[in-house]
Specification:
This protein is an alpha/beta fold. Helices cover 46% and strands 12% of the residues. A 6-stranded parallel sheet has the order 5-4-1-6-7-8, with helices on both faces. It is globular and about 50 Å long. The chain binds magnesium ion (MG).
Length: 242
Amino acid sequence: MTHTILFDVDHTLLYTGGAGGLAMGRAFQQLHGIENAFQNIEATGRTDWSIFKRGLQTHDLFDDAQDFDDALAAFIDAYVGQLATTLREAPGYVEPGIPELLDALAARDDVRLGLATGNFRRTCLLKLEYYELNAHLSEGGFGEDAENRGDMVTRAIERVASGLPASDRSAHGDNASNGSRPNEIWIVGDTPRDVEAARANGVRSLAVATGESTAGELRAAGADVALKDLSNTEEVLSVLFD
Ligand SMILES: [Mg+2]
């Protein structure tokens, strides 16, 4: 049995103190000349792709798909540049118990760890590096993978949970694959959108009330389990490996 645990980033692993939003705003201003472009755009639980697209649409800058690909690539570059500065400006923190939990999970040989985040890959890795959470997390689903969070989670599952690629499987004589089955895959996140994305993919969700939603709200959204926080490593492990 191979368990796959896929983590959301903001308000689940860490809180940047607003550094991400600040950097996105500055990047948009740098490229499109509009200040506070995202201030009326609801970002919670959305992918960065979705947030950026809404920013363009709100300010009548959204054209066709080809232009969008180019605009998105330029935006990611600018955002990465701004985030390196704003991470130092905005005081944030690692959510309680996260380093201990990641170490405990990484120590098991029946676990694959990954990310299922709305952050772009590069900005995600910058945040994790800044908060020293990058030792066990690098692959997964990211903000440029999809506009819709459920589709991003699908990519995370493909990359982390599915075992060896088919081409390698035959070379290793492993026809059955060593991937996780759906009930061995968990999405860990803080918003109803994390929960909905897990359900859309037929996998389980561990929701954590370290963001804007209460445990009750997360349960109402369909979370398999909702906890106040992830500070009690033994409790979390008993949930994941019940
Ligand atoms: Mg989050």
